[in-house]
Amino acid sequence: MYLFDLGHLPGHQSMLVFHTLARMGIEALVLVSPESPLGSVGYFQDTQKEVDLEFCRRAKIPLMRREIGGGATYLDQNQIFYQVIWRKDNTRLPQRIKDVFSILSEPACQTYRVFGIDAHFRLENDIVTEEGRKIAGEGGGNIGNSMVFVGGILMNFDYSTMTRMLKVPDEKLRDKIFRTMEENVTTMRRELGTVPPRSEIISVLVDRFSRVLGRLTPGNLDRATLQKMRELERWLASDRFLFRKTPKIPRGVKIREGIEILYGLYKAKGGLIRTVETVEGSRLNEVEISGDFQFCPKEDLSRLENSLMQTTFERETIQGRIEAFYEKEEVETPGVSPEDLAEAVVTAKP
Amino acid sequence: MEIEGYQFPDDLYYHKEHYWARIENDTVVMGATDFAQKLAGEITYVELPEEGRKVDQDKPCGSMETGKWVGRIYAVASGTVIEANEDLEDTPELINESPYENGWLCKIAPSNLDGDLKNLMQVEALPEFIRSEIARVEKITSGKS
């Protein structure tokens, strides 16, 4: 298997490389950082619905859809991507998806540990610190006759740009997404107070990956590969591919595995009910309710929201809490029943 | 037939990429096998070929996502897609829950059915194949190479 230690490449090329090698059936470990920013959109995502295109245009962040899974993410020079490409008939490497993630995450976990960060792999498919903060997102897929696994070491992370890049139904939500992301995603800089030299991180990654992948032969991308990359770029960077119709309907933002900010929307007789919910596993941590319906007295709305904090995310419990609140507080919501409010909250449920 | 805990109905044809084919009059109905769905885990998104699209046996004709992994769907027969299972757009988990019934993927009007069937396995050939596939996927985790 080859080792392509490519240093920094223009944003889109840093992602094009694994698509190209996979199509060519070239087995390799690629280590690369984007030298310029890139917005990367997951294969099943609807770019127009998930990404703030106007912001990306103004901030000069090009977008590219990748052929592997996961959500929209912001890539820049503060990340080191490890990309493993192997032919699907190579039985020395994992074939079962859960094995791919658990086995091939281990070199990155060990790399973090070498630098003093106690990181480990957690289902479904993040690397997290001891405190449960995500420190690497990962994804993969079958491309051509190859399997591809990609992850990124977060030396540092631009939470602000990442948050700005996402399309949200209400601008007020951005701050919430930013705060939740800051609480749940961490970096080497935050954990260590400093970032180790990139060359040292690369050296450890190569050593740890070689223990799983076997001997790695250093190489450079040859002319045929570069030519194939240029050809592929025309398709992968095309508007047709970027804005293709997809079945994935955005219903929120996944901050890390287990924590999501979800949007609920429900049309009741008395008006439209909107919710923004922070959900952790099966628990509704908090909810904000808005819309164009009447809620009297309106000061009680935040108390209703408080009564739903830390609730089991299931209809019966939520509706029970709302009904209890109505009984106790004697609020009036013409055309909006407790059932409607409960429906608005649970429609956001995955 | 049950093989190592995986179900394989006797009346189907099987593709080596773990998709099944059922012949219904002049139509081929295809889906993912129990082995495929268990190997994949919870399926969250599915992209199926549109009606009217020409597909080739053994070639990718769609995709599905499971746990941030995008896998390809391979056509079991060549021909023209006449229907895709629209229910899967909202409920892709049907593939996990009911791989041989409600979780079917698409229907194909075959262009070379007799030829294509020769490349598919019938249930009698499956025990050896499935056991070799299990050995293949488990090799890495058992430390053998």
List the helices and strands and how they pair.
The complex is a heterodimer of chains A (350) and B (145).
Chain A: E1 2-9, H1 11-24, E2 28-34, E3 38-41, H2 47-50, H3 53-58, E4 63-65, E5 73-75, E6 79-87, H4 97-114, E7 120-122, E8 126-128, E9 134-143, E10 146-154, H5 159-165, H6 173-184, H7 188-192, H8 198-213, E11 217-218, H9 223-236, H10 239-242, E12 252-256, E13 259-268, E14 271-280, E15 283-291, H11 300-307, E16 311-312, H12 315-329, H13 338-346
Parallel strand pairs in A: 1-2, 1-11, 3-4
Antiparallel strand pairs in A: 2-6, 3-5, 6-10, 7-8, 8-9, 9-10, 12-13, 13-14, 14-15, 15-16
Helix pairs in contact in A: 1-9, 4-8, 5-6, 12-13
Chain B: E1 2-3, E2 6-7, E3 13-14, E4 19-24, E5 27-32, H1 34-40, E6 45-47, E7 54-55, E8 60-66, E9 69-74, E10 79-84, H2 87-90, H3 94-97, E11 106-110, H4 113-118, E12 121-122, H5 126-139
Antiparallel strand pairs in B: 1-2, 3-4, 3-12, 4-5, 5-11, 6-8, 7-10, 8-9, 10-11
How would you sum up the global shape of chain A? elongated
Proportion in β-strands of chain A:
25-35%
Work out the radius of gyration of chain B: 15 Å
Q: Which shape of chain B, going by the Cα principal axes?
A: globular
Helix content of chain A: 25-40%
Q: Greatest interface and its residue counts?
A: A-B, 29 and 23 residues
Radius of gyration of chain A: 23 Å
> Helix-strand pattern of chain A, N to C?
EHEEHHEEEHEEEEHHHHEHHEEEEHEHH
- Low-confidence parts of chain B, pLDDT < 50 over ≥5 residues? none
Low-pLDDT parts of chain A are none
Mean pLDDT reading of chain A: 91
First-residue to last-residue Cα separation of chain A = 40 Å
Q: Order of helices and strands of chain B, N to C?
A: EEEEEHEEEEEHHEHEH
What oligomeric state is this?
Answer: heterodimer
Number of strands of chain A: 16
Count of helix runs of chain A: 13
